[in-house]
Amino acid sequence: MKLLSILVSLAFAISTSWAAELIEPNPELTPEEVVAIQLTALQTNNAETTDDGIEQTWIFAHPNNKRMTGPLPRFAEMVKGPLYNMLLNHRTHQIEETLRTDGQASFTVTIVSKAGDAYACKWTVEQVAEGEEAGAWMTTAVSAPQKVGQAI
């Protein structure tokens, strides 16, 4: 019985650590998958650890974007601020591709905030040209979400 208890505890610890692992950029992910990873992370922020969704989103920020937003703590402040906080723990999201070129893709993203308001923004990803993340799609810009109405 004690062995069973230890095995159950070990299995739980392993599954919890796997759940908490962050997805890293790689060239096999499509532009839409990258946006979906980020939106799902923001939708479930604080699921495993404090600001884990914000961290997952920041990991997919393009190197050029990271130069502008700064390190993770500064990025977290920006996401929690008035321009983007409706993305945190939102109810639902929809992703619609609006433009695709060889190295860039843009999407119209619509979310329903946890308060029930609908917002839309433009989400742009580009392929990284060089370095260890070369070929991976990463976010270069997200417009400030604009309120488009009250969700049902």
Question: What features would you describe in this structure?
Answer:
- The chain has about 150 residues and is α+β, with helices and mostly antiparallel strands.
- The protein has one domain (about 30-150): Roll (Nuclear Transport Factor 2, Chain: A), CATH 3.10.450.100.
- Helices cover about 35% and strands about 25% of the residues.
- The protein has 5 helices and 5 strands; from the N terminus they run αααααβββββ.
- The protein has helices spanning about 1-20, 30-45, 50-60, 65-70, 70-80; strands spanning about 90-100, 105-110, 115-125, 135-140, 145-150.
- Strands 1, 2, 3, 4 and 5 form a 5-stranded antiparallel sheet that branches.
- A hairpin with a 4-residue loop joins strand 2 and strand 3.
- The longest helix has 18 residues, at about 1-20.
Give helix % range: 25-40%
Beta strands, count: 5
Helix and strand composition category: alpha+beta
Shape: globular
Classified by CATH, the class is: Alpha Beta
